[in-house]
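Lab notes, practical 5.
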Amino acid sequence: MNFRRPLLAAVSLAALGSGMLFAPPRSEAMPQFAQATGLQCSACHTMVPLLNSYGRYVQRTAYSAIPRESLDKTFPLWIDEALNYDSSAGSGTGTPRYDGGNLAIHAIGYAAPNITYHAQQFITQGSQSGGLDTLWIAYNDLLSPNSHLFAGKVENPAPSIYSQDFDLDGPSASSTIVGEHDWGATYDNRWGTKYAFVNKGLDLEAAYLL
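Output from the prediction step:
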C-alpha cells in the first residue's frame, strides 16, 4: 500500500491550517462604505489602511461624499484588527517587526442630514490597553456643500502621505521636519476643531488643536 500520497495530503493540510492560524491578521476597510456604495476596498485604499486619492477625499469631506440614504442602510458599528509593521526592517538588524495587537471598535454615520460622526476606541493598541483614537462630529454645509467643520478629537491637518499610516514608528521614522519640529510630535489625533474646504482635488484645512 502506498502511504506517500495520504501522508503528503496530511502534511499539506497541516501546513495550510497552521498558516491560517499564525498568519498576520488582515486589516479591513470600513465595511459601511463598501456596503453603501457597492465598491471594493481598492476604491479607497492602495493597501488597507493606506488611502488613495478618492479615499482621502471621502475622509476629508467627513464621509459626506457618501450619500446619507446609502450610509443609513448600514449598521454603524464594527470591530477591526490591524497589523502594524516596521517599514525599515532590513536596514538595521534585518529582523522584521510586526504588531497585530491593535483591536478597535468604530462607530460611523449620519447623526442628522448634514452632520456626520466617527468614533474609534482601541480595545488593545500596540498589544497594550487601548485609548480613544477618534471622536468627532462634523457639520458639512457651513458655507457651501464643500465646507466641513469638525469638532472633537480630530485628525491633525497633514500631508496626504501621512494619512492612515500603519508603520510602527509613524512619520517620526523618517525624521520629517516641519520648521524646527519633528512632524511625529504632532501626528496623533488631537482635541479641537478643524475646518476643511474640499472641492475635487483642492483641499484647504485650518485647525485649532490642543
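Observations recorded by the TA: Residues 28-85+96-209 form one domain. The first helix runs from residue 4 to 22.
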